[in-house]
Amino acid sequence: MFTLVGSLSVSHTFAQKTVNEITLSYNISIESVNDKPSLSKPLDGATLSLYIKGTDSRADMKNSLGTESNLFDSRSGKGTILKEYSGQKLMITLTRENWVQKNQNFHNMKFSIENTDQEVAGYKCKKATAILNGGKSFVVYFTADINTANKEYNNSFKNLPGIPVQYEQESGKLKFKYTLTGIGYENIPDSKFDIPKSGYRVMTYDENQQLKKG
């Protein structure tokens, strides 16, 4: 595991803006790990919208097949996953322990940060590298000009001193590349973090894991 090396300059540290409320928009390009484009083609045009307000966070991933939302309240430790695909609507409830288990590959990552700047997607960025629990490298280009007060919105970036601009993650046979396309500071309505009270098949995270194994 890498340890944090180098540091941001003094002027950079004092210039950083920490926000309690922010909306981040990403485009997602998806490739097949085994070079079979048929696996990734249905997911072309995918986007991620991330909303952070106080202790609440919500990540909406949309593609041509449907949508998936991850909601988490770091104060209560309760999480919810909402999936809508092919007319089916599923709600998965998570405890704080489930949330940690779901993101265990990214738990307590420590980044090695290169002390050089480069432009990525129009933002001045630094390159940060960590080693996942499975041994793979995880590279993030981030802007140190902005940071979030809520660092639990995504375990991948809990120890990242800024906002991720570009990064890649693998899931199964697919590789997802996220690129920041916009930052918004407008007020996010509290209703954005409301949990639906009907219309979904509800199960716990543990029940969902057992279903996958079956």
Descriptive account of the structure:
The chain is mainly beta and 214 residues long. The chain has helices at residues 10-15, 37-40, 96-102, 205-213, and strands at residues 17-19, 21-32, 46-53, 56-63, 66-73, 78-85, 88-94, 112-113, 118-120, 123-131, 137-143, 146-148, 163-171, 174-184, 201-204. The protein has one domain (18-111, 149-213): outer membrane lipoprotein receptor (LolB), chain A (Clam). It contains four helices and 15 strands. The strands form two sheets. Strands 2, 3, 4, 5, 6, 7, 8, 9, 10, 11, 13, 14 and 15 form a 13-stranded mixed beta sheet that branches. Strands 1-12 form a two-stranded parallel ribbon. Strand 10 (123-131) and strand 11 form a beta hairpin. The two termini are 34 Å apart.
Shape: globular
Tell me the total number of β-strands: 15
Ends distance? 34 Å
Largest sheet: 13 strands, mixed
Q: Give the SSE order as H and E letters.
A: HEEHEEEEEHEEEEEEEEH
> Mean pLDDT, rounded to whole units?
87
% residues in beta strands: over 45%
Number of domains: 1
Sequence stretches where pLDDT stays below 50 over 5 or more residues: 1-14
**CATH fold-level assignment:** outer membrane lipoprotein receptor (LolB), chain A
CATH architecture: Clam
Task: Please count the helical segments.
Answer: 4
Describe the SSE topology:
Layout: H1 10-15, E1 17-19, E2 21-32, H2 37-40, E3 46-53, E4 56-63, E5 66-73, E6 78-85, E7 88-94, H3 96-102, E8 112-113, E9 118-120, E10 123-131, E11 137-143, E12 146-148, E13 163-171, E14 174-184, E15 201-204, H4 205-213
Parallel strand pairs: 1-12, 7-15
Antiparallel strand pairs: 2-3, 2-14, 3-4, 4-5, 5-6, 6-7, 8-10, 9-10, 10-11, 11-13, 13-14
